Every structure is written in structure tokens, then in C-alpha cells.
């Protein structure tokens, strides 16, 4: 066991500018972010990402229909939409509908940016990048904040890699270093997406108290 202590006046942690470097080489015990391929419920039927559009399509568990989640890249923003369908939509229909009705969210994502339904992956990717840059294991940190979390499939290397790749695709404004201001921004971002336990845990550690964290 080693102590995880985040000191506000301690040494600055220099962030890794591209968190994807070397991510595939990490083991199951090191790739530890709780992530899912889609933010919509149901059995995943298809997913894909091109240079300008990403989509997930599931079978609606509550009705005889389908749910889609679509992200379309725009200059300095994305359009984000979740909606239901009575039949399987074509890729053209998904794109056209999102372009017409999707919510516009600014990008690159910045720390402490308000939650609008589209930012969860970006926030969790920044949390993972913070942990890796600081030499912490994201899984160990989350396990301390959420000790009852046991679903190993949600912490797989593939799930974490996909999360980081997608967030990188959307574009994120990574801090030059994880100083006190950046960590406070991350804590605020986690509160925005309602990961209150994890945000409170980081705030507790950042305040200078020592919390045991598996290495």
C-alpha cells in the first residue's frame, strides 16, 4: 500500500499531452477507468466513428424500438443527440437528424465546463489522464471512492482505450500541468457529471489529508 496525497502547494504534475500514448500496453490492473461504449441503455447493435461523426445504436430495453446516440463534429463544437426510433435508422438518417436537432456543445472540452449531457466521456478521460500523469492508478482511486464497485468488465483495457480515443477525437483542452487550479477544475467537472463521490474523494485528498490507495 502507498499513500495517495495531493498537496495544493506540492510539486506540479506535468500532464501528458497525448494520453493515448502507451495506453494499449497497460495491464488490466493498470487500465482501470469505469467506462462503457455508449451512454444509452440496451443491447448494442452497432457503433462507429468516422472523421466527423460517431454513433451508437441499441435496442430500446423499455419498448419495441431503438435508441441512438450521435456525436457530430463541428468547428469548435459538437452536435449531440440521443433519440428513439421505431425502426433501424440508416447512417444518413442518424447524421441528418443530429445535424438538424442535436444540442450544440462547445469543444474543445475545458475543465469545469457545464454538463449538457454530452461531456461525460471528456470528463472521465481527463480524470484518467490526471491519474496516469500523476502516477496513480485510476482504478485504485475510483475503488477508494466507490468501494462497492465490482463490475470488472467495465474496467477493461478495451473500454478505457475507447473512452480515451473518443474523448481525444472530440478534442479536449488538456492542462499544461496539474496544478491546484487544474485539479479544482477536474473536481468541479466530476461534480457536473454527478460523480460526486469521486469528486469529494479528490477534494479530500487535495486538501492535504492522506488516503491509502493501492499502487
Plain-language structure description:
- This protein is α+β, with helices and mostly antiparallel strands.
- It folds into two domains: 2-37 and 113-213, no CATH class; 43-106.
- Helices cover 33% and strands 21% of the residues.
- The strands form three sheets. Strands 3-4-5-6-7 form a five-stranded antiparallel beta sheet, covered by helices on one side. Strands 1-9 form a two-stranded antiparallel sheet.
- A hairpin with a 3-residue loop joins strand 3 and strand 4.
- Helix 2 (120-134) packs antiparallel against helix 5, helix 3 crosses helix 6 and helix 5 (180-192) runs antiparallel to helix 6 (196-206).
- The N and C termini lie close together (6 Å).
Give the topology:
Elements (H helix, E strand, L loop, with lengths): L1 E3 L8 E2 L28 E7 L3 E7 L6 E9 L2 E9 L5 H11 L1 E4 L13 H15 L3 H8 L11 H14 L6 E2 L1 H13 L3 H11 L4 E3 L2
Antiparallel strand pairs: 1-9, 2-8, 3-4, 4-5, 5-6, 6-7
Helix pairs in contact: 2-4, 2-5, 3-6, 5-6
The average pLDDT value, as a whole number, equals 77
Number of strands: 9
Strand order of the largest sheet: 3-4-5-6-7
Tell me the radius of gyration: 18 Å
- Please indicate the count of domains: 2
Q: How far do the termini sit from each other?
A: 6 Å
Quote the beta fraction: 15-25%
Main beta sheet, described?
5 strands, antiparallel
Helix percent band? 25-40%
